[in-house]
Design goal:
The complex is a heterotrimer of chains A (103), B (215) and C (489). By secondary structure, chain B is mainly α. Helices cover 75% and strands 0% of the residues of chain B. By secondary structure, chain C is mainly alpha-helical. Chain C is built from 20 helices and 2 strands. Chain C has a two-stranded antiparallel sheet with strand order 1-2. Classes of the chains: A mainly alpha (103), B mainly alpha (215), C mainly alpha (489). Chains in contact: A-B, A-C, B-C.
Chain lengths: 103, 215, 489
């Protein structure tokens, strides 16, 4: 393998930054969820890269990445349930139109 | 009801435009990478890595920048498939497979369903908040810090090791048996949560039954 | 059996009996609720079964006292774990017994609500007992997921779904931050086991200092979100106000205690060798939290928001102990946590019964409560005074021990901030007490009383508050044994 570990880490850092931008800039709840998924993809890349380069004997990071994927999928289902319920009540999925509570 | 869904004409247009834009951007990059490969500046693995990175980053940028909700969700697919390619580069085929099945098959469908069931069918274009410059600053700062950390740190020997698949199975189901139990709790909770929120509130259901109305 | 590295594995599931009982009872509760009509069961069966399940888990935890063991190198069973198991079970029992009338009236999907309470208690226990980052992360998510849902279960309250949405979105971001930090920590240390991380960080890691510091910053940030510390507290007032009140009580007790247990496990164990990198972060967050929490609490009109900010500020006091972590600070923090949980539950149970009667939650609605229900007014007053740290109540004793430990840890300036913050807090607590005692009641001035279970819970908690305040030695001894297990066990 000729690709150094740091290339993967740089890729994941850029992806994490993009996801963080999305979380801060977006208003639609579903788009915020998408941005969180991007951040979690960055996390999984990190874990797998560290597992194959720095922890090849125990490779806990590989298992960790698998669980991160599972939890992320569950989180999308859970959050969309709440979004749909709120949409039924309010007819909006934008977080700043849901403003009966102060932020 | 079907008339209001953005099928199939709008999707055709999205796919055609997306493909056009994608190939216009990716074409020169691909040509450049192949040229570098021909000149033996970079190896074949690097060609694939850079190609996948470009797909991932452009897809992610599209997902957080495009104003149309549906375009964003479709752009996310490119990112997630690119990430699966990166997993393959890291010699973990199983996780690449899981990534494609769970994300490409499950999560993306869920997100698009969520979009269709909320306001995307009437008005898919949403404007972003006014805090965009602030968000850009913070995102750039975070990305910059972590890129610097990744570049400057001394990570030791730079070789990836192939992890045998049977060993992965043993590790997962024997050594990490407890996390599997806890994930069972977690999925139980997520399932309950999706159910109670999707099911109508008891009082609202009772009201509807009394008035015979549909909401 | 041994794992892939050749370490022997102990796969005795009996060690996890309390958690497994809770999960089993959670499934049972959902079934009973679903087939209530067919089983001809009364509505009270579900809470009774839930409490019985919790008590059974408590009995199952008794066997683990003074035992030191681990399950498959993933979970430690020691006195620290046992301390938190009992604490979480007690919180859940008090919340259910004290507010089951409220839950019946103001919460949707009661069966699922109790099941979530049980599962989240199991998750909190795993947070306190984990000895592997993967187990700890999954336990955090078990607790958070159930709370996201529980917050959104309020009946006929539009604020509830909104609070749930804000909580789940911000919580997802915080989890992603925490995870990115954990991945960097894993990269630096090369393992997810606490013991091996400690070994790796104790060695020379000069070339990896920057990723380590950034990873620690993200970990501290992610956990600070879970414990609602400033500047990661934005979700807390909204979630506290929008959630059904028992969930608010549970958020302020179990969620906070579980996160602090995790703080102690991580920063007192694997991350202790890197104390130079994170101590200033912790001290800064503690200071911000105490100052900001107390100042914003001054302007609140809603009792739930007031208690939310007060609990944010209280979290700042607890983070001080993490900044000066040692065995002394740990046992002081455990004592303070015990006193805080008792006080907060007493206060919330009393407010819940006030709401059951009046359906109001503004501070001005408490006018003249000393005339219409002097007992409830007394409990609320005692709770508020205890939070402010008045003598003869639990808060004074526990805060005294905590401040002493922080001073001996060498952060005197932090304690000065805390004392000033405590004084400020007395002012807004007195606002509520003034409404109850100085003003005449408005509207309905008839005397009223609360339900028998309400009397039982509030009285037990009130008595505990006074007993700990006057004679806190038993709590101190227990906390000391738990801290001993963490540092020398």
């Amino acid at each position: 393998m000729t690709i150094p570990l740091s290339s993967f880490l740089v890729l994941s850092a850029l992806l994490f930054g993009i996801g963080f931008y999305g979380v801060l800039a977006r208003r639609s709840a579903i788009l915020i969820l998408i941005a969180v998924e991007i951040m979690l993809a960055a996390v999984a890349i990190n874990f797998i890269a560290f597992a194959t380069y720095r922890d090849p004997k125990a490779f806990s990071g590989l298992v960790f990445a698998l669980f991160v994927i599972a939890v992320a999928a569950a989180e999308v289902g859970l959050a969309l349930g709440i979004v749909l319920r709120l949409f039924r009540e309010r007819r909006t999925a934008n977080v700043d139109e849901a403003n009966s509570l102060k932020w | 009801m079907f008339a209001r869904l953005p099928l199939p004409a709008q999707f055709d247009r999205i796919i055609m435009t997306g493909g056009l834009v994608g190939s216009l951007v990716m074409g020169p990059i691909l040509v450049g990478l192949i040229a570098l490969y021909m000149l033996s500046r970079i190896s074949g693995a690097e060609v694939v890595f850079y190609l996948a990175s470009v797909v991932i980053l452009l897809g992610a940028l599209g997902a957080v920048l495009l104003p149309n909700l549906v375009h964003s969700a479709l752009s996310l697919i490119a990112t997630l498939l690119g990430v699966a390619a990166i997993y393959l580069m890291l010699l973990s085929e199983f996780l690449a497979l899981v990534q494609i099945l769970v994300y490409g098959g499950g999560v993306i469908m869920l997100v698009i369903f969520g979009l269709m069931l909320t306001n995307a069918q009437d008005d898919p274009v949403v404007s972003d908040g006014s805090q965009k410059p602030f968000a850009f600053g913070v995102g750039a700062l975070i990305a910059g810090l972590f890129v610097a950390a990744a570049m400057m740190a001394q990570w030791g020997p730079s070789t990836a090791t192939i992890i045998p698949f049977p060993a992965f199975g043993e590790r997962l189901f024997r050594d990490f048996s407890l996390p599997i139990i806890i994930v069972a709790f977690l999925l139980d909770i997520a399932f309950t949560g999706a159910l109670v929120n999707a099911r109508r509130a008891e009082s609202a259901a009772a009201e509807d039954a009394a008035t015979g109305g549909t909401r | 059996m041994s794992d892939i590295l050749g370490n022997p594995l102990n796969l005795n599931l009996g060690l996890l009996l309390p958690e497994l009982i809770l999960a089993g009872v959670a499934v049972l509760v959902v079934f009973i609720d679903m087939f209530q009509a067919e089983l001809k069961a009364s509505a009270r069966v579900v809470p009774v079964v839930t409490v019985l399940g919790l008590l059974a888990a408590g009995v199952a935890s008794v066997g683990a006292i003074d035992r030191v063991d681990d399950f498959a190198r993933l979970v430690t069973i020691d006195n620290f774990t046992t301390f938190f198991r009992f604490l979480f079970i007690a919180v859940a029992v008090f919340v259910i017994v004290g507010s089951h009338e409220y839950i019946e009236r103001y919460v949707n999907h009661v069966g699922e609500f109790y099941a979530l309470l049980l599962l989240s208690t199991a998750g909190a226990m795993f947070m306190a007992s984990a000895r592997d980052l993967l187990v700890a992360y999954l336990a955090i998510e078990v607790l958070s997921f159930s709370l996201y849902i529980a917050v959104s279960l309020g009946k006929n309250d539009p604020r509830s779904g909104e609070a749930g949405l804000k909580y789940v979105l911000l919580g997802g971001v915080a989890s992603a931050m925490l995870l990115y930090g954990l991945s960097l920590l894993y990269g630096v240390a090369g393992s997810t086991q606490y013991s091996e991380i400690a070994t790796a960080l104790a060695q020379h890691h000069e070339g990896l200092r920057m990723p380590l510091v950034l990873g620690l910053a993200l970990i501290v940030g992610g956990l600070a979100f879970k414990v609602s510390a400033v500047p990661f507290h934005m979700w807390a007032p909204d979630a506290y106000e929008g959630a059904p009140m028992p969930v608010t009580a549970y958020l302020s007790a179990t969620s906070k205690a579980a996160t602090l247990a995790l703080f102690l496990r991580w920063f007192g164990g694997p991350l202790l060798p890197a104390i130079g990198e994170w101590q200033w972060m912790m001290a800064a967050i503690a200071t911000l939290t105490m100052v900001f929490g107390n100042l914003v609490a001054l302007q609140q009109h809603n009792i739930k928001r007031l208690l939310a900010y007060s609990s944010i500020a209280q979290g700042g006091f607890m983070l001080m102990a993490i900044a000066t972590i040692s065995d002394v600070a740990t046992s002081a923090l455990l004592v303070h946590l015990g006193g805080y949980v008792i006080t907060n539950l007493a206060l919330f149970t009393a407010v819940i019964h006030f709401y059951n009667r009046t359906g109001k939650e503004e501070i001005t609605d408490f006018r003249g409560l000393s005339r219409t229900n002097p007992y409830l007014a007394l409990v609320i007053t005692a709770g508020l005074f205890s939070l402010a740290g008045m003598p003869l109540l639990a808060g004074f004793f526990t805060k005294f021990i905590l401040f002493q430990a922080v001073v001996s840890g060498g952060l005197l300036w932090l304690v000065i901030v805390a004392v000033v913050g405590s004084t400020v807090s007395l002012f807004y607590y007195l606002q509520v007490i003034r409404q109850m005692y100085i003003y005449e009641p408005e509207g309905d001035t008839t005397k009223w009383s609360i339900s028998p279970t309400g009397y039982l819970t509030t009285f037990v908690l009130f008595a505990l508050m006074v007993i700990v305040g006057i004679y806190g030695t038993p709590l101190y001894v227990v906390a000391d044994r738990a801290a001993f297990a963490l540092f020398k066990g």
